[in-house]
Write a structure and sequence with these properties.
Blueprint: H1 4-10, E1 14-19, H2 27-36, E2 39-42, H3 48-51, H4 61-72, E3 76-83, H5 90-93, H6 98-115, E4 122-127, H7 142-146, H8 151-162, E5 167-172, H9 180-195, E6 201-204, E7 207-209, H10 217-226, E8 230-241, H11 246-265, E9 269-274, H12 284-287, E10 291-292, H13 305-313
Parallel strand pairs: 1-2, 1-9, 2-3, 3-4, 4-5, 5-6, 6-8, 7-8, 8-9
Antiparallel strand pairs: 8-10
Helix pairs in contact: 6-8, 10-11, 11-13
This protein binds ligand G3I.
Length: 317
């Protein structure tokens, strides 16, 4: 039978999903994951507040559980995420010395990457470091505030040293079309390439709104590919007001199709990851009240119109 994973594989792509360890014990959750998907991103389990909640004391147990599930089903694993201003324990936010913070950041990267060495397909080394206007995100971002712009390249240099075989990504949202933010990230990639700073990939989260896929989505992916990095769609979802209308579910199908077709048209786009399996557990309603229904399976694991549109866009409909 055709699945998201098999259809993507026929095009040489991985079709992944965010996974939360606490849901793996639900049989329908696990069986949908195992049947449909060929890639996994731990939704929260590899983040700093989970893996190093107090200084120097590392806990990888919930991430290990996802990794072992994924490995036993031959799924690719995206490591998410090593350096991010959010979901950062307060002991890190409270560090006042830049040299201490740099040491702490490097130790976190090295320890986490060593733990998972050889098991991770691509790592999100730095997440969400830019504002929508293309400036560096400084608000609530202790790394930017204390270390300055160079924290990003320091993180990539450290990650490359920790595991020279690992593929290293920069990951962000609202970068899905050609705009000030994606321009700034492209300029960073070009600068890194020109100075020999290791970067292999840019992740486009693609937390989208129904009816609003940027018209230059594919052109944007392509210009990054042309700059010499792989491109990945890392956190795709397309939200709408709930309860979902059938018109919006149809529009969502069209929208998913556009995103998937864009990835298929760009040879360096090798991964499409949706940010969750079922609408039931999506992050969207918790953040955008009155919105949701953003994924490919509804609350009862029924396939939505967008599911069939994705299969078709992958050439298997
Ligand atoms: O684990 C606790 C639980 O013990 C507690 O009872 C509950 C009460 O609120 O909170 C639980 O933690 C929540 C956690 O998700 C696990 O469900 C946090 O409050 C909540 O903030 C956290 O949200 C996550 C969010 O990142 C945090 O920024 C979402 O699950 C996760 O989907 C979301 O993912 C991010 C990507 O990492 C980066 N890009 C944007 C994307 C969406 O925000």
């Amino acid at each position: 039978d055709t699945t998201l994973g098999s259809a993507a594989a026929a095009k040489g792509r991985v079709f992944g999903t965010a996974v939360a360890n606490n849901h793996l014990s639900e049989s329908q959750y696990a069986s949908t994951l195992d049947t449909e998907f060929t890639g996994v991103t731990p939704e929260n389990e590899m983040k700093w507040d989970t893996t190093e909640s107090s200084q120097g004391s590392f806990n990888f147990s919930s991430a290990d559980a996802i990794v072992s599930h994924a490995q036993s089903h031959n799924m690719k694993i995206r490591g998410h995420t090593l350096v991010w201003y959010s979901q950062l324990p307060s002991w890190v936010s409270n560090i006042s010395s830049s040299s201490t913070l740099l040491q702490v950041m490097n130790n976190h990267i090295t320890t986490e990457m060593n733990h998972f060495k050889g098991k991770i397909w691509y790592w999100d080394v730095v997440n969400e470091a830019f504002n929508d206007d293309g400036s560096r995100r400084s608000t609530n971002n202790v790394f930017q505030q204390k270390i300055g712009n160079s924290y990003i390249e320091q993180a990539f240099i450290t990650a490359h040293a920790a595991d020279p075989n690992a593929k290293l990504c920069y990951n962000d949202y609202n970068t899905d079309g050609i705009n000030a933010k994606s321009n700034a990230i492209l300029a960073m990639v070009q600068d890194f390439k020109s100075r020999g700073i290791p970067i292999d990939c840019v992740g486009f989260q693609s937390h989208l709104i129904v009816g609003q896929v940027p018209s230059d989505y594919q052109a944007n992916l392509q210009r990054f590919a042309n700059a010499g990095v792989d491109v990945q769609i890392t956190e795709l979802d397309i939200r709408m007001p709930t309860p979902a209308s059938s018109a919006n579910l149809q529009q969502q199908a069209t929208d998913y199709s556009k995103v998937v077709s864009a990835c298929v048209a760009v040879s360096r786009c090798n991964d499409i990851t949706v940010w969750g399996i079922t609408d039931k557990y999506s992050w969207v309603p918790n953040t955008f009240s009155g919105q949701g229904a953003a994924l490919l399976f509804d609350d009862n694991y029924n396939k939505k119109p967008a599911y069939n549109a994705v299969i078709q866009a992958l050439g298997s409909g």
